[in-house]
Request: fold
Amino acid sequence: MRIDLHCHSTASDGTDTPAELVRNAAAAGLDVVALTDHDTTRGYAEAVAALPEGLTLVTGAELSCRVDGVSMHMLAYLFDPEEPDLLAERELVRDDRVPRAHGMIAKLNGLGVPVTWEQVARIAGDGSVGRPHVASALVELGVVPTVSDAFTQEWLADGGRAYVEKHETDPFEAIRLVKQAGGVCVFAHPGASKRGRTVPESAIAEMAAAGLDGIEVDHMDHDEDTRARLRGLAGELGLLVTGSSDYHGSRKTVLLGEYTTDPEVYGEITRRATGAFPVPGTGGA
Ligand code: AMP
Ligand code: ZN
Ligand code: FE
Ligand code: FE
Reply:
């Protein structure tokens, strides 16, 4: 069984539509794929409708969080997408992404970059708008060669010259909301130090006590030492260990299924979830 529990579509900042994502996941030989767009569930219906036979879809989202001034991402799986409190929180974060994008564009204009809202809105389409869309605009304008190159202090990295914060949920509140909606919580790429400051182990321990289910360990942003350290921490805290690609289509170089999750861990995630069930593919509509 090959299981990839963290992927983005055009519902947020991936470049595959949800239908393309599930087709590409099947073509990559995956048995299970999770759709975890940033702060939104709007890709679900299209992914389910296009789901190839033999591929199971895990519905989820990657929630933008912040604790003690440090941004972090919480993967939420198999929650009830209609549970009103979590739904309201996702909307709050998503809605705030729009004025925040305008703010980053204004800062870029101030730095002499002629990026416009029209350009960013065209790139984002109906996806939840984020820095990778602004980064793609910078690539189009020839300011940087790749999306990744826009994530520096010079441009869009946390605290960078054109960075603007958005509303982000307290992770303890996120855990409470996800549990209330019957879902399972996994702290995404907790050791991704290239992206900025990371959350200390003491805070991860507090999250474990508050109901965090697991941490994502096998991820492209973690080197071998970081993975070993996080695996040890998960053992100490009784947390599940996952691995995932964090696929973004052509906005990142990582491939679907490049990192995967152990089938036993996947089984445990599905046993804990009560808000939704994995969807087995029947061959598409
Ligand atoms: P936002 O949620 O709008 O603040 O954007 C954060 C997203 O930017 C992350 O979820 C990643 O998808 C993407 N990102 C962060 N760092 C990088 C990087 N170095 N290269 C490419 N994408 C990145
Ligand atoms: Zn993303
Ligand atoms: Fe993330
Ligand atoms: Fe992600």
